[in-house]
Design brief:
The complex is a heterotetramer, with two copies of chain A (268 residues) and two copies of chain B (251 residues). With 268 residues, chain A is of the alpha/beta class. Helices cover 31% and strands 25% of the residues of chain A. In chain B, a hairpin with a 6-residue loop joins strand 12 and strand 13. The chains are: A alpha/beta (268), B alpha/beta (251).
Chain lengths: 268, 251, 268, 251
């Protein structure tokens, strides 16, 4: 059964320097507060995995937590680029950032393989693109029945996956609903998992389009109301679109970013 | 009624969705065009967002592909792996909408890096997202991009998504099942692939624009159709519905 | 959009002699009435596909509709053997029945591959079993990243898949809930699909653990109340366990079966 | 209290579930044993049914693995592909319960055909179902089968599910990740694999039964542990709870 912990305690015990860490949540339920706690605790040399690195990954990269980024789309949705990510890739500030770059279909299937206990997944993808030349974690596999050549991607097996969900019960069973993205796969693919939730309830009333992760496959649950802001938590709060727009200015300049980080994350 | 170049682009793309069943939508102009089509001539058009909303019917333009209203109005909400594996990959979806930072005469797209060296780019772009498989697997691909020599290049710096590759037969050799880009809507006109050469060719010009402008804003020797037609300007109804849609969607 | 049809009309237009036909429903929502309509219309030489052939497949086999059976577990759940299936396999009555036999994991993954537009699926399975020697639709595939050898199974692509669901709306969107088995994959893997439903409603109110198949991926919907009896339809009726027990006696003897068939299926 | 051989089997299997987190359950005696364990010493035991019920808590014994109550009481309901791919295959499940028509000294199981010729069997059995992957992937496998020379054979006619194959090291060579059968409960006693030879060895005898009976009902030269222990008879509480469970489950 998952242990109910405080956020600082959960991050301290589950996320270690050098770990491969996946924070998932596809535009919805992004575990922003947990990511900022990782910054606060000064983790280093992380391999950060996420299909859609956005604001909180820009913060993690700008704060120097990451050595490598495994991703398929890195940007500020509806706004533009991630300036801290760009600065790290183009200028190596504050540290060089290796990129392992896939398509969404490839990343999703890498999580599926990890959750399924398989070393790889097969898909129709990448053929003819320059990703084939630049992404080392790609190969081909031949169908033993038809001879057709398809693309293979290796399983993703994070040391720890962090997600945010609407709620959990006291046994640590976790319930999320709405757009649930790739979170179930990301948790099941990982060795350890930390789930931040809006609230803990006595009973998880079944809901439409809900995914339940039983407590026995989750390592720890931390109650963090608003833990997904500025993204949204269906049924709890909406997306703060202004914050996404404002991030563009904050993140453009190193000093502005560093000041923002000290005031809003490091001291908090 | 007067209208902007962007409105001309959106209306042109929306018109092209007539008769299509399903459309894989991103955010921005494509989403506006698809939602406009649903309000005009294609009320039954099925909108599929990579975030997992199948058959979304947003009342306002989503601000992100994961906008909560997409899930709340969808016929079915599925996981991200399912969208790509069960819905996109088998070629169930009629039209995929894409844009890019760069494209070439064969409709190959770059959303990854600007500059000769991938490891040391001049500009780092967001990356592939769902585009490579949308370009590969949708039955047809529609492109929307403003005309400029910076974007319409002889050779893209990085092939993120394949159009017609290096020309006729290349998609077949790669085993790509969709037909590829059949339409490119720009602020100057409409380009369609030449049936023989697969080269994007100017086939329609928007009212008040000229082929010369298009040539000047294209980084390769732009082919122009011998039977260059003029795009119908947006009707008052089209503009009215579009403007109400955009206005009603402001934060 | 799926067409609303009568059951007889739907079977007549979608199920043809010699077709590969999958009737799915994992103990719940078994499309029994549709299967009996296939018998009534005298279909022949069918390749019948189903993970768990039970009573209705025993009837289809005993009625001589099937040439081949692709399956993973054939029995009368909680009761015993399928006597008509046994008679066909052991004595070729009323016609010889070829068997293509897999495990549940293999069959489920074959449907997944079919639904995904892939020629095959990869799993950990079958290793060391005699299925490897006797099931031709099995092969191995080597992981291009780890060198590990895994099992490959070919995609299932039925000509037509038939399922039973609780309800549909007037656009032919189909909703089923409870144990939803492999029905979504079976429908998406097929060229054509027929869905029988308990009722048609104006609005499909979202429900927990519900699967919705949009009308544009379903060929036809037929209203058949009680269409899953003697299996159950959650929210509509329970499993008729007596019928499963009684089937044992009915099916044991050829004449008893033939009489039952004429009285209960052929004339109906 | 007096008790039947079947009750002795069920109670013995239920006791063996102490300390386990999760159990992949079929129908019949295994389901009875697992549900009994939940009512006695293992209230938190997670029951997983191949029909898609994860963490089912049936109030009565399910009549089929797809009994509606399984979904209604489960922590999570998933599809059949997901049960096998996300839950069983990765080895998340502690105990898999299996039975068979035939088994051999290495716990290999036959549920496919009786007779030398697969194509022309003497008896056609139901087939594999979930058993091969349960036997391969669960961390441990428990077997339940009444003792008889017909069932306990020198060589199974068809290997549907692998126990220890042909002996030590075979599971490793096959890449099977679970430990294999660690317990076989019969109506006469309990067999466990010899640590060196992997051969199922009589380690416990039920009260009133003898090793000679077990030998006589075994189709191979049955090994008997030098320290043969006697099974604790069912306690009154165990019998009382078991009988109420069974009675409350009659149709």
């Amino acid at each position: 059964m998952a242990e109910l912990v405080g956020l600082a305690e959960g991050v301290a015990s589950l996320v270690r320097d050098g770990d491969t860490v996946a924070l998932e949540g596809f535009t919805h339920l992004i575990p922003v507060r947990a990511g900022q706690e990782i910054i606060r605790q000064g983790r280093r040399d992380l391999t950060l995995v996420r299909m859609t690195p956005d604001i909180v990954y820009d913060q993690l990269i700008g704060a120097g937590c990451a050595r490598r980024l495994v991703f398929s789309w890195g940007g500020n949705p509806g706004v533009g680029s991630l300036h801290r990510m760009r600065d790290a890739v183009q200028n190596g500030w504050p540290a060089p950032l290796e990129l392992e770059e896939h398509s969404h279909a490839g990343m999703a299937n890498r999580y599926v393989a990890g959750a399924s206990g398989l070393p790889f997944a097969v898909l129709r993808g990448y053929a003819g693109t320059d990703l084939v030349a630049h992404t080392t974690s790609l190969a081909t596999v031949t169908c033993p029945f038809t001879g057709e050549v398809l693309t293979a991607v290796p399983a993703l097996r994070p040391d720890v996956t962090v997600i945010h969900a609407q709620r959990a019960d006291r046994e640590g069973n976790v319930q999320l609903w709405g757009l649930t993205g790739v979170q179930k796969e990301a948790v099941l693919a990982a060795s350890r998992s930390l789930v931040t939730v809006e609230e803990v309830v006595d009973e998880l009333e079944p809901l439409p389009d809900a995914v339940v992760l039983p407590g026995w496959v989750v390592t720890a649950v931390a109650v963090v109301p608003g833990g997904a802001r500025p993204s949204y938590a269906q049924g709890y709060y909406d997306r703060d679109n202004r914050a996404y727009l404002e991030w563009d200015a904050v993140s453009r300049d190193r000093d502005t970013f560093s000041a923002w980080l000290s005031e809003n994350v490091l001291v908090a | 009624m007067t209208y902007t170049a962007e409105e001309m682009m959106t209306v042109t793309a929306a018109r092209a969705l007539a008769g299509r069943t399903s459309c894989f939508v991103g955010i921005g102009l494509p989403s506006t065009a698809a939602n406009l089509a649903r309000r005009l001539h294609a009320p039954g058009l099925v909108l599929i967002y990579e975030s997992g909303a199948i058959g979304a019917k947003p009342s306002r333009l989503p601000l992100s592909i994961g906008d909560g209203e997409l899930a709340e109005t969808a016929d079915a909400v599925v996981t991200v792996p399912e969208v790509f594996n069960y819905w996109l990959q088998p070629g169930r979806i009629d039209v995929g909408f894409l844009s890019a930072a760069q494209l070439d005469r064969f409709g190959n797209l770059n959303t990854t890096t600007i500059g000769a060296d991938y490891r040391n780019p001049v500009v780092r772009l967001p990356g592939a997202g769902g585009a490579p498989e949308i370009a590969a697997s949708c039955r047809e691909v529609f492109l929307m991009l403003r005309h400029s020599r910076r974007a319409f290049v002889e050779r893209v710096d990085f092939v993120t998504s394949v159009g017609y590759g290096d020309g006729p037969g290349h998609r077949e050799r790669l085993g790509l099942r969709g037909r590829g880009p059949v339409l490119l809507v720009t602020d100057i006109g409409v380009l369609e692939p030449d049936p023989a050469s697969c080269e994007l060719t100017l086939t329609k010009i928007h009212p008040g624009r000229t082929a010369a402008e298009a040539r000047a804003a294209t980084g390769w020797e732009l082919a122009v159709s011998g039977t260059l037609a003029e795009t119908e300007p947006p009707t008052d109804e089209e503009l009215d519905v579009l403007r109400r849609l955009v206005k009603g969607s402001e934060p």
